[in-house]
């Protein structure tokens, strides 16, 4: 049975100031807040001071937004944005790329660890779980925005996004969201039950699984780049996924040569962040 989807992206608008609350922003915020709760719980279990988590959340959100925006502008529509650089700042007009967001998140987490004296690989292992969950929440937001939709389909589970056209399409946002939720659950189970893993092992699984899923799901999407890829077997999104997968494979091998994790030394470099 086909579903006609015409959800209003705006939940409500605050009168006088004319400020709109959107579903996308709500799911984005809820995802990060649940991730913050998970990190806070893990820090307390390891007797680590949680005072730096607020700044970590700020670093992660900032890195995700800046990276995702630059990724979209420079990877998917470089001709336009290099000719109109001021429009890169107009993030409210839409246009965020998950590959850029992932890279921005990694870089800002590295910077955070450098400043606040945390072990990057071990902190990243913990953060991968809520990050995968956040990715799933963001894709639900995309669904409410009727964006990042799939190719036309004749299958009964197709959805007509009325804000786009009257063609039944793959609800690829839902496919991707479910994939990320399942990956988050898988990573959580490994994180909890495989205690002798080396540093970076969870991060390696995250990179491999998320971006393999992305390559598969790209087959259900129309090309999102502004330039033609007609002579290529792969989309821009698939090409961009390959370096992440290769990095994950290399890190997976290296993780077996790194020290196994231990309770209170998994994240901190020294005792300055341990509760007294």
UniProtKB/TrEMBL annotation:
Pfam families: LGT. It is an enzyme of class 2 (transferase). It is a multi-pass membrane protein. It is found in: Cell membrane. Keywords: Cell membrane, Lipoprotein, Membrane, Transferase, Transmembrane, Transmembrane helix. One of its GO terms (cellular component) is plasma membrane. The keyword Aminoacyl-tRNA synthetase does not apply. PANTHER family: PHOSPHATIDYLGLYCEROL--PROLIPOPROTEIN DIACYLGLYCERYL TRANSFERASE, PROLIPOPROTEIN DIACYLGLYCERYL TRANSFERASE. Belongs to the Lgt family. This is Phosphatidylglycerol--prolipoprotein diacylglyceryl transferase. It comes from Ruminobacter amylophilus. The lineage of its organism: Bacteria, Pseudomonadati, Pseudomonadota, Gammaproteobacteria, Aeromonadales. The gene is lgt.
